[in-house]
Design a protein that fits this description.
The protein has about 170 residues and is an all-alpha fold. The chain contains six helices and no strands.
Length: about 170
């Protein structure tokens, strides 16, 4: 008996590729504009979605615990995972504003730390009369600004919009 190799039709593959190419820039564009103009709500929504997904996982673990209660060797693991998941999911939803501020300050501190450490290193090697010194000062300023505004999210939104425009241009070529 002889095996036959079936090759996919190239036309079907090209149609799927075209559909994906137009959907991606639309998603980037919408998400970019949301991050630029409604970044607080987007971050809150992301924490809500993550919290709901973790709660659903906890409920699933709880159901698995009761379904397999007699068969499982270590009976409390699914129950523990269920309880912890539900608690973490609820906390993510309740503390979404605090977590957003925490991430914002953390990103700001990281930029300040990177800028300061690179600036102090270049000063210690007496190599501070170049472009990297300006970049390090800019990192420090960016870190301070991102602590008190949503500059990072706005920057990410701008990058997504620019990427969407580039993808649209490539699509319509």
């Amino acid at each position: 008996m002889k095996a036959e190799i079936i090759k996919p039709n190239r036309d079907d593959k090209d149609v799927k590729r075209v559909d994906n190419n137009i959907i991606t820039p639309i998603i980037y564009l919408v998400l970019g504009f949301l991050l630029i103009f409604k970044n607080d709500k987007v971050m809150e929504f992301i924490f809500y979605v993550i919290g709901i997904v973790i709660i659903i996982y906890g409920i699933k673990s709880f159901v698995l615990y009761y379904q397999n209660k007699e068969l499982v060797r270590y009976k409390n693991i699914n129950l523990s995972v269920a309880i912890v998941s539900i608690i973490i999911g609820v906390l993510l939803i309740i503390l979404s504003g605090f977590l957003q501020a925490f991430i914002q300050y953390t990103i700001g501190f990281v930029f300040i730390f990177i800028g300061l450490s690179r600036l102090l290193t270049s000063i210690s090697f007496n190599n501070y009369k170049n472009l990297s010194t300006l970049v390090n000062i800019a990192l420090i300023i960016f870190g301070v600004c991102s602590m008190f505004s949503n500059l990072v999210l706005i920057g990410l939104g701008i990058i997504l919009v620019i990427n969407a425009i580039i993808l649209f241009i490539e699509y319509f070529k």
